[in-house]
Design goal:
- The complex is a heterotetramer, with two copies of chain A (405 residues) and two copies of chain B (346 residues).
- Chain A has 405 residues and is of the alpha/beta class.
- Chain A folds into three domains: 1-37, no CATH class; 40-357, 3-Layer(aba) Sandwich (Rossmann fold), CATH 3.40.50; 365-404.
- Helix content of chain A is 41%, strand content 8%.
- In chain A, the strands form two sheets. In chain A, strands 1-2-3-7-6 form a five-stranded parallel beta sheet, sandwiched between helices.
- The longest helix of chain A is centred in the last third of the chain and has 27 residues, at 378-404.
- Chain B folds into two domains: 16-207, Thiamin diphosphate (ThDP)-binding fold, Pyr/PP domains (Rossmann fold, 3-Layer(aba) Sandwich), CATH 3.40.50; 219-341, Rossmann fold (3-Layer(aba) Sandwich), CATH 3.40.50.
- Chain B contains twelve helices and 14 strands.
- Chain B has helices spanning 29-43, 67-71, 83-95, 114-121, 124-127, 157-161, 174-186, 236-248, 266-276, 291-303, 327-330, 334-343; strands spanning 25-28, 47-51, 76-78, 99-103, 137-142, 167-169, 191-196, 203-206, 219-222, 227-231, 253-257, 260-262, 279-286, 312-316.
- In chain B, the strands form three sheets. In chain B, strands 3-2-4-5-7-6-12 form a seven-stranded mixed beta sheet, sandwiched between helices.
- The chains are: A alpha/beta (405), B alpha/beta (346).
- Chains in contact: A-B, A-C, A-D, B-C, B-D, C-D.
- Bound molecules: thiamine diphosphate (TPP) (2 copies) and magnesium ion (2 copies).
Chain lengths: 405, 346, 346, 405
């Protein structure tokens, strides 16, 4: 590939290979020619907008530049829409309209920044948590929520949106992302794959295998770890003993970034740079966004059993939307008009979501047999016929009962 | 986090003595399992409980409720999120004399541990000529019926029952849940303990501690003369319901709760089938290569000339487990049992 | 290492055209598989081959011999050593339109990939209503008979055949090895392609490319009238040998090579059993919950009133696969087949 | 536990926790109180004895002290015995007496240093490659080789030797080591677990899970990765894109050391320090020994297909035994007498090994059924009876045939 290497943020430039070598140890033994040795990620998360809403200067930016006000305004709009959607879905779930819903409240900066960094041909590999990322990428509420309502496992067309089904088996989707990115690379296509991972899921073997395959194959993959500090009830301190998860990157010879996951400006700057680097042949990047899961794990979880209210309140004070709002307001970009029109859009979205979920889906139980194999199997057709017969009988019984009544 | 928790309570809890049973109370399967874990932890200091969310949360189904607070971080704790890691470290602990009771959060989430289970857990005793035993219990909430999204409703018993070296059991009621879990923890062999998650909240009046028949035995739950209906775990209730419906139609159905999937209790089942001369087996898992195939095959092998008809299988379809709104069409029902029995020439 | 290898030969190899078959030559199963991979790689630029040691070494069984040199690093390459990673990345590649053919080095070493296989590979088409298809072939050398140390001789077919969404096939001879592998690679469904490793070097005279019956059909290899003996993969040769021995004793054994384990060819098998009225199934895997259970159960269900005797299972014992010096006592033999047939009342 | 923390080599001391923290990020969020932050491993392997046989001074020792001459002489003796044994077993395998044998020729420094670092109560978790480690720990040749001859899966009593069965499924044994070490810690026992891993096996998910569990639980485990640069035919450059495998340690918050695996003095110094550190409550350590597999992967492998003879020859020049021999000879410790007596011992060992392997083992096929479960199972007894009957019939046929002849 005759492409130039991408930049990955000025101050976190990849080091030249000036590492001292063992005398008498052949070079190929422990380092291939294109190994990039990044410095250790900082333990202070990279940040561009402080909690006060003011721009951060100096080392903590790691040299990343503040996105333009237009960009930030666009991100703000998406975050507000996403938050409204998330709240609406949580409400619908409480009302029993959905089987389950894992909210991403508080994680909007990570979710929206990631989606905003991708080009249309790029692929997104989300988990169950990343519903608002799907929304932001343009999947319709009903196509998204079909899964959580329980109609079918995936309600949208992955190929139409370049989004894989939301993955429940933890960390498994990271390998799919690496595979897809590698296939695109083999075909010389301009496609990057971005996968989300939770802090808990980084403990799975598949996470490691994905990091390693991506780096050995130099596949154009971006790993966005949303460290929301809990895996259901298990706090991060029981998940890892490392300084940061981003520290893992060095062990794969890939750049790693520890970022304030509630600062959408920082997340956007770092992820965009990583996507660009992947796109231009520079290989994978690991990004950890430090954030917080404000809601319960899902509606059936009871977080009072494992965390203090005070902790949640503390993180409320670090809200990603508030922070951006302050910054944009100070920058004069977020006037009451703009805010109002975004809020109105959000209400339209919420209403549409409610409307869609208030309709009862029409499901055909016989479709259960239609997508298991590409070719028909006689034995499965027998089972399909059995169910068809049973359904017909039930129908008949109901009709008869109705007739009698 | 350091594992050693010097502040953990040093109190040794004595399980209720067998000769002074508590008064009978209404208890769920979940409650009975919790009581069994508590009594086992209290009785044997080598018993430890760990896994995902089994600590302060008490597990997503609350089976380990309050045990972390009661026994401390050194006995009941949250591990990192990695199933192969949980099984693999449990193996090392058992080699050192502990008796780990570990939880896989849902059936399909035990698959990452498949290599540790098949290549080590099941084989260690054999590999070492009996010198290394692995007294480990893997608790797995399994099967459907709770409206779970994909990967939360698998019936994975056939994978385990086909693996020599494993003992596989599944209770269907609170008394068995308590007694069988206690026995599983006392067993020197690894036990896959399958918990029918749709039945967790089913209650019975039981006085704990209770001792039901040995966990390797099937039990006749309802006598009958026309047909032997074999069921286990989540389908037992449906089988009993089918027997009720059958009785109304003049059909006398004998319901056998297998309880032990590996080993299979040929004796109890054989006696019943010789009496009724007809048999059917129920399960939620897909039919093809499911546990019912083994049951049908061995009952037929052993009772061929007593059988008036082929053994029937009333099972899930040969498709991935459906989404919540469609699972009712997949799960075997009492009506399907009766419809199946109707296909026989009587 | 960079994956993109600009120096790889750009030549497109054209597979031998069907209308001009090569002269018949003596070829082994290993050789036929190698030829099938070569022709598939040449025919379809989306076919890629990767796994452990499949590159310059050509695989530990040499099934991918010379393919790396011929097609270059972008088509045939060594992956890092991680089976879940191999299956997981193959899934992502297939989502992008490639047709990966991946190798698990030995049966038991596919277990780390079990979650990717059961929860994703098998279910993706279903999860997405047919929108995402995964045309992936997983080649797995399986079963014993080569004196392999532990974990190198498992027969793991029952795990895969019980998993809806997978197609599971296994050839027993060079012509089928070629034809079925070509068909598996063309299939839009994931195929578990089980290669009987003890038979890799068994030769036949074949002219490639050869097209044998579709891979979802069973084939009657030897006609007979007294009993239908079902076999697959490594046991087919033993079954044919048993038929020879039987013939010498005046017993006419019809040998059916199942070829396809999932789906099962009810039609071909049913026709044979209705003719002979007796059936037996052979496999190396442990008997309990093995594939033979499904075969016995469904043949009995469908042919009960044609059967003069219960379906017999001649299989491995319910123990972990033995060490090299003891495997001969475990593996089913022609003598055991005859002894088993002798247990029937004739 | 009121034990003091162990030392881990003077110049690789664990850093105090003086790391800058994120403002406003609660401390517990990304680093627990006892996290030890080691510096990145050096990329020049730690070395105490140069290939010339001379002692290394300066930075490359990483401050580790040279073991005493007595210690080195002991290690030398074990290495010579092990090498002789290994050569004998390879020869027996070529003669067809064993089913398979993965030789550790060239890796003696790693193998022997690890075993020598352990106390009798410590546990060893070896792979198929680490046969000479078993020998060095005192398992008899016949008990060891029973596995490779094909008599039974494990020929020795793991509890008697505190050695787990040699593991074939890659990386799986590392988790067993972590579990055992954790159990010992829970029981306040003075036991360390040491596990070997190959370079290839570090790519498996289980390796990652083992590193992570060990560090989160601060279990007294030592991971010795023998990077012999090949996983069967796959070179290390296709296995990892990192600088060194030891770099992975930082991502688990544990110390990592990249060591010259052909320098037994360095391996012994580093492993001993790690074992001591684990013993005194300091948690796990990851050690990578850079070495080379001189023989084929096993007897059935053909390395000419994937590596140049020149490469092997190059590594012959870095032989671990030669190097130590030069050092000890120069130190005056290895006189011709001593050398001769060690060589004689090695011949005795080889002869005993030959002798043992020339005897035909007496195996009872019925034992196949005896160790599957602790309790008898009726169905298994039926199968046992079937085989017993079959064996008796064969016996009878043979007797009859003999009678007729
Ligand atoms: C392989 C696997 N094991 C267990 C689970 C059950 N489970 C679902 S979510 C979850 C916690 C995941 O935590 P994290 O990765 O931090 O993501 P978050 O939910 O915080 O977004 C667990 C244990 C699962 N889905 N998959
Ligand atoms: C899970 C698993 N996958 C594959 C194999 C087959 N296999 C045996 S050894 C080996 C290479 C291991 O390489 P490495 O870890 O570097 O150890 P070495 O043999 O070099 O000592 C492979 C692929 C296996 N034993 N286990
Ligand atoms: Mg989380
Ligand atoms: Mg190696």
């Amino acid at each position: 590939m005759a492409r130039s290497f991408g930049r990955l943020g000025p101050s976190v430039a990849t080091l030249p290979r000036t590492i001292a070598r063992a005398l008498a140890v052949p070079e190929h033994c422990f380092m291939s020619d294109d190994v990039v040795v990044p410095p250790l990620p900082t333990t202070k998360p990279i940040r561009l907008i402080a909690e006060t809403g003011r721009a951060v200067k100096g080392a903590q930016t790691a040299g990343f530049a503040m996105p333009s006000v237009e960009t930030l305004l666009g991100l703000y709009r998406q975050m507000v829409l996403a938050r409204r959607f998330d709240a609406q879905v949580t409400a619908l779930t409480r009302q029993g309209r959905l089987a389950t819903y894992p909210s991403a409240l508080g994680q909007e900066a990570c979710e929206i920044a990631a989606v905003a960094s991708l080009a249309p041909n790029d692929w997104l590999f989300p988990t169950y948590r990343d519903t608002i990322a799907l929304l932001t990428r343009g999947v319709s509420p009903v196509e998204i929520l079909s899964f959580f309502r329980g109609d079918w496992h995936t309600g949208f067309d992955p190929h139409a949106h370049h989004i894989s089904p939301q993955s429940t088996p933890l960390a498994t989707q990271a390998l799919h992302a690496v595979g897809l990115a590698t296939a695109a690379k083999l075909k010389h296509d301009d496609v990057v794959a971005l996968t989300f991972l939770g802090d808990g899921s980084t403990s799975e073997g598949d996470a490691h295998e994905a990091f390693n395959f991506a780096s050995v194959w130099q596949s154009p993959t971006v790993f966005v770890i949303q460290n929301n500090q809990y895996a259901i009830s298990v706090p991060f301190s029981k998940q890892s003993h490392a300084r940061t998860l981003a520290d893992r990157a060095i062990g794969y010879g890939m750049p790693g970034y520890f970022v304030d996951g509630n600062d959408v400006a920082a997340m956007y700057a770092v992820i965009t740079a990583a996507v660009e680097r992947a796109r231009s042949g520079g290989g994978p990047t690991m990004i950890e966004g430090l954030t917080y899961r404000m809601e319960a794990h899902t509606n059936s979880d009871d977080p009072t059993r494992y965390r203090e209210k005070g902790e949640v309140a503390e993180w409320q004070g670090r809200d990603p939307v508030d922070r951006l709002e302050k910054y944009l307001t100070a920058a004069g970009a977020l006037t009451d008009d703009v805010r109002g029109s975004i809020a109105a859009d959000a209400e339209v979205l919420a209403a549409a979501t409610r409307g869609a979920m208030n309709e009862t889906p029409v499901l055909d139980p016989l479709e259960l047999f239609d997508h298991v194999y590409s070719a028909e199997r006689p034995a499965l057709l027998e089972q399909r016929a059995f169910l068809a017969h049973e359904l017909a009988q039930t129908e008949q019984t109901l009709t008869e009962m109705a007739g009698r009544a | 986090m350091t594992l050693i928790d010097e502040t953990a309570p040093a109190v040794i809890h004595s399980p209720q003595a067998k000769n002074e049973p508590a008064a009978a109370t209404s208890i769920s399967i979940a409650g009975a399992l919790n009581a069994a874990l508590r009594d086992a932890l209290a009785e044997d200091p080598n018993v430890v409980v760990f896994g995902e969310d089994v600590g302060p949360l008490g597990g997503v189904f609350r089976i380990t409720d309050a045990l972390n607070a009661e026994f401390g971080e050194n006995r009941v704790w949250d591990s990192p999120l990695a199933e192969s890691g949980i099984v693999g470290t449990a193996i090392g602990m058992a080699m050192y004399g502990l008796r780990p009771v570990i939880e896989m959060q849902f059936d399909a989430f035990a698959y990452p541990a498949f290599e540790q289970i098949t290549s080590h857990l099941a084989k260690m005793r054999n590999r070492t000529k009996g010198r290394v035993t692995l007294p480990i219990v893997i608790r797995i909430p399994y099967a459907g019926g709770i409206g779970g999204v994909e990967h939360h409703s698998d019936s994975s018993e056939a994978y385990y029952t086909h693996t020599p070296g494993l003992t596989v059991v599944t209770p269907s009621n609170p008394a068995d849940a308590y007694s069988m879990l206690r026995e599983a923890i006392r067993s020197d062999d690894p036990v896959i303990f399958l918990e029918p998650k749709s039945r967790y909240w089913a209650k019975d009046t039981v006085s704990l501690p209770v001792e039901t028949p040995p966990m390797n035995r099937a039990v006749v739950l309802r006598e009958g003369t026309d047909v032997t209906l074999l069921a286990y775990g989540p389908t037992v209730k449906t089988a009993l319901h089918a027997a009720e419906l059958g009785a109304a139609e003049g059909l006398s159905i004998e319901v056998v709760d297998l309880r032990s999937l590996s080993p299979f209790d040929d004796e109890t089942v054989g006696a019943s089938v010789r009496k009724t001369s007809r048999a059917a087996i129920m399960h939620e898992a897909a039919q093809f290569g499911g546990y019912g195939a083994e049951v049908a095959a061995r009952v037929t092998e052993r009772q061929f000339f007593h059988l008036a008809a082929p053994v029937l299988r009333i099972t899930g379809f040969d498709i991935p487990f459906p989404s919540p709104k469609l699972e009712e069409h997949y799960l075997p029902t009492a009506e399907r049992v009766l419809a199946a029995l109707d296909t026989w020439e009587w």
